[in-house]
Amino acid sequence: MILIDGKNISSKVKDEVKNEAINLANLGIKPGLAVILVGDDKASLTYVNSKEKACKMCEIYSVKKTLPASTTEDELLNLIDELNKDDKIHGILVQLPLPKHIDENKIIEKIDPKKDVDGFHPINVGKLSIALDGFVSCTPAGVIRLLKEYEIDISGKNAVVIGRSNIVGKPMANLLLKENATVTITHSKTKNLDFYTKNADIIVVAIGIPNFLKADMVKDGAIVIDVGINRLDDGRLVGDADFENLKEKASFITPVPGGVGPMTIAMLLNNTIISTKNFLKEKK
Ligand code: GUN
């Protein structure tokens, strides 16, 4: 079994990002990312702070906008409008979930698709589905990067994605399809899940249930990518895959923590670099 070291690969990506950011700054354009947090969800605050810290480390200008939970939809739309027009900002991220009184789709659609470094705007989602260049959701983009770094051949493989969220499952399936895998999307309503997983060469599990994927559900030599981050009552962080038993059976597996998790922010910074380069190209 080979352990996929997301911490190491994410450091490599961040080093590349830092070099690119310095080069862009020397050309007179420092990459800039705005991160918006509405409300006081603790996990979201932790994510937003990590994103800000990562920007600093990688020479990316970062703006953190922390708004109270009482913020209206219009106030948030206006803030996005300002950031859309701000030439110092090349990426805009609105941390999800948003408070219930705000329509998430409306907010996402307000972000200029050219600054949508999360890849959530319908324009970018659509581009991915027809394999055009655009921003791709960071976690699934990170998974593909990990597979490539470990020289795992995706073409022609049976890939099973467990979970169909807009952030992970659906873009993951589209990315695997783009890499010529034969892709099956499964989810909480799938019957006989193990019929699919037992035939899978690559399994990406993103269902949000601790230790959901068991060793008897996979074939020998399967590649297991665990996107889950679940906090147990005793404080331990575990994935969606039963790592202890799967590690005996898998050919490659990502640990939690230290697998897919660290890749998300690295890919976000990478998307911010891409956005800045696009901006520079358009200006010329
Ligand atoms: N909430 C959970 N994951 C994400 C993400 O990747 N981006 C944003 N904006 N919010 C999230």
UniProtKB/TrEMBL annotation:
GO terms for cellular component: cytosol. PROSITE patterns: THF_DHG_CYH_1 (PS00766), THF_DHG_CYH_2 (PS00767). Residues 4-118 form the Tetrahydrofolate dehydrogenase/cyclohydrolase catalytic domain. Its EC number is 1.5.1.5, 3.5.4.9. It comes from the Bacteria. Pathway: One-carbon metabolism; tetrahydrofolate interconversion. NADP(+) binds at G163, R164, S165, I229. GO terms for molecular function: methenyltetrahydrofolate cyclohydrolase activity; methylenetetrahydrofolate dehydrogenase (NADP+) activity. GO terms for biological process: L-histidine biosynthetic process; methionine biosynthetic process; purine nucleotide biosynthetic process; tetrahydrofolate interconversion. Keywords: Amino-acid biosynthesis, Histidine biosynthesis, Hydrolase, Methionine biosynthesis, Multifunctional enzyme, NADP, One-carbon metabolism, Oxidoreductase, Purine biosynthesis. Coiled coil: none annotated. Pfam families: THF_DHG_CYH (PF00763), THF_DHG_CYH_C (PF02882). Residues 137-277 form the Tetrahydrofolate dehydrogenase/cyclohydrolase NAD(P)-binding domain. It catalyses: (6R)-5,10-methenyltetrahydrofolate + H2O = (6R)-10-formyltetrahydrofolate + H(+); (6R)-5,10-methylene-5,6,7,8-tetrahydrofolate + NADP(+) = (6R)-5,10-methenyltetrahydrofolate + NADPH. Catalyzes the oxidation of 5,10-methylenetetrahydrofolate to 5,10-methenyltetrahydrofolate and then the hydrolysis of 5,10-methenyltetrahydrofolate to 10-formyltetrahydrofolate. PANTHER family: C-1-TETRAHYDROFOLATE SYNTHASE, CYTOPLASMIC, C-1-TETRAHYDROFOLATE SYNTHASE, CYTOPLASMIC-RELATED. Belongs to the tetrahydrofolate dehydrogenase/cyclohydrolase family. Homodimer. This is Bifunctional protein FolD. It comes from Campylobacter portucalensis. The gene is folD.
